[in-house]
Structure formats: C-alpha cells, structure tokens
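Q: What structure does this chain adopt?
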Amino acid sequence: MSDPASEIRPRLPVILLTGFLGAGKTTLLLRWLAESPATGLRVGIVMNEFGLESVDSQLLRRPGLPVRQVDGGCVCCAPESDIDRACRELVQSGLCDYLVLETSGLADPDNVIDVLTDPDLLADVRLQAVVTVVDAEWYARPGDAVSERVLARRQIQFAHVVCLSRCDRIGEDAILGVERDVGAINPRARIVRLPFGLPEVGAILAAPPAEIELDPVGEGAPEGAHLHAAYRSVTWRFPTAVPRSAFEAFLSALDPKEVVRAKGFVRFQGQPGKVFLFQTVWGRHIVEEFPAKPDPETLAVLIGPGLDPAKYQARLRGLMARAPGLTVG
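A:
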C-alpha cells in the first residue's frame, strides 16, 4: 500500500549550479547558505567533485545542513542512479524545501539536466533553474585553453542566470566584453556581476520554473569524449606540518597547463593548532586560515589535463623531507 503522505508531498525545486573549475561555484553557494535563513526555506545540497576527495563539502559543513555526495568522478557521466539516489534521499528526509546540485567544473550540464528531468525523478523534484558561474578574469584573457573554453561556453548555453565572478579584478571594458560574449551565446540568460551582485535564492525559487532547452542554439556539444576524459587528479595526504614558504613556492610553481585547479587543507610549521585552506586556479593561489571545527583532514587535490601523478607526488614528498623529525621513504 502506498504512503498517503508521499502522494501529496510536493516536488522539491532543484537549482543546478554549474561552471568551470575554480569559477567560484562553492563561493556562490556559501553566499546562498548565508542568505537561506532569510527565505524561511531549508536547503539540501548535492555535491560532486572530480577528485577522489571532497574539499568543497568541508567548506559547506555546518550543523543541520543535509549534504549528499555523488562520487566517482564527473557527475555528467555518473550513473543516473547516483544522482537519483542523492536527490531522493534528501527529498525523503523531510529536511529540505529545495535542493542545490553543484556539479564538477568539468561537467557538461546537458547530461545532468537529462537526469533531473527523467520521468522517474520528476515525481520528486523539478528543475527550477540552471545557474552558471564564469570566471570573468580568466574568460576575458585570450588563451590557448581551447577545449576548456568550449566547455565554459557549453555551460553558458544552458544557463538561466550567468554569474560573472571576479569582476572586481578586471576593468569595466573587460567585463563588458565578457557580457557581450555571454549575450551572444545565450541571449535569454540574466547576467549578474560578482561579487557586487547576487542572484537571490528567494527570487529564483519564487519565479516560475525555467524552461529547459536541451538542444540550445549555438555551439554544439564537443564531439567525441568529454573534456574530463583528458583530466586526471592526484590526492596527497600531509602526514605533518610543512614549511609555509616552501609550500607557497610549490603552489607558485604549478604549471596551469598541467594543473588547472588545486585545493585542500594544510598545516604549517610554527603555527600549531591552525589549519589553512589553499586554492589555486589558472596559476593564481590563495592561502587562508580555516577556522571551522572539527579540523578537516590535511590533504591536497590537484586536477589538470594530462597530469603526471608521479611528478607531483615527488614534489609534495620533497616538502615532507623538509619537515623536521620526519623520514620520507
């Protein structure tokens, strides 16, 4: 016999959050989490990261926030059952009024939209909107990352809202140039400049569900294998604290043609009791204290095309060799 409560349970709206590696998806999601109490609505998160270890879920961790992880690489090629399971678990928990699904930066949104609009899942959720984050500073720079730009444009094509991140790092002319390009790719998308503006969750949820066009006009899907087929990831766990100067030199020396994205947590010598978050994208890096408790596991995740794991494991092992009292085999 069916459960009467399940028959009248409303479908939960899903905001699909996309964007290339390091564009600022999780930063936007953190702003949404800060805004969420004002909406009076409870959010559930479905996370996907390309690496084997999830760093971003640690950034989102807070009491009472339901989070489900879709493992096994890029969500656009994950088994439909994994996304289905994660969404259904959150729906059935009764702890959420809406969901945000944050994809890996290497995901083609077309495949994910196809899963979210599958008739079997439509009984529980409805796709409310696709929000794509674009690193305006990177996009405005002419470069040779041709395949990456094709995927970024693909992510723009499916968006209802396009958020241009890092607008505070480039001039008005450069921003206008990116906005013109975005408008040419997807004329129907609303454009928001970050960090100055914010696509408000309440407004997105109050609007009618956006129409989904699975075959948008413009650049077609890249032929052949997905971009992530050329990408690899390396995970390294730090057994002890490392010298900060040596670690920042390691980050500065990362070749963006090999390591597009690096992130994780690290401890530094001489600063006991502190954990630091580090992030690198396209050769730019930041290191900042991570105050949240309990302390996350200290590890590094490196992601890039044709990445040689042995090469970067050796470099990280070299940092360990500089740590006093530690013998590295």
